[in-house]
Design goal:
Layout (H helix, E strand, L loop, with lengths): L1 H14 L3 H11 L8 H18 L5 H26 L3 H29 L2
Helix pairs in contact: 2-3, 3-4
Length: 120
């Protein structure tokens, strides 16, 4: 019985760190299936900043300045991926698998080896 009570409490305590992200996600979910433009992405980034400040989550000034543009940039990167998920075609799926399964690990591997070779 003790575990049944403490597990939800521990989960809620852990997830409270992510309340600014949850608020931003809710703001996007309220749009339903409507297309979301860059203004809405910037708004959700600013809403996340405001929530983080109110929630007393540690937030640096640099993080606050970068939040809205990063939401817009993340949306621009995610849009082509979502098109593959929404309407998969052979060409799109092969491109996504090639980029995500071969090119990204190759790039990070090269960066890792370059950094290891320069580390004393």
């Amino acid at each position: 019985m003790h575990t049944a009570i403490t597990t939800p409490a521990a989960f809620l305590t852990y997830t409270t760190l992510y309340v600014p992200l949850i608020v931003s996600a809710i703001a996007l979910a309220l749009r339903g299936t409507a297309r979301v433009g860059w203004r809405r992405w910037a708004f959700t980034g600013l809403l996340g900043i405001a929530t983080a400040i109110i929630w007393d989550h540690p937030l640096t000034f640099g993080g606050a300045v970068l939040a809205a543009p990063l939401m817009v940039a993340g949306a621009a990167v995610a849009e082509p991926i979502w098109r593959v998920v929404e309407r998969p075609t052979r060409g799109r799926v092969l491109t996504l698998v090639t980029l995500a399964g071969i090119c990204a690990p190759a790039l990070t591997g090269v960066l890792d080896l370059a950094l290891r070779s320069r580390t004393p």
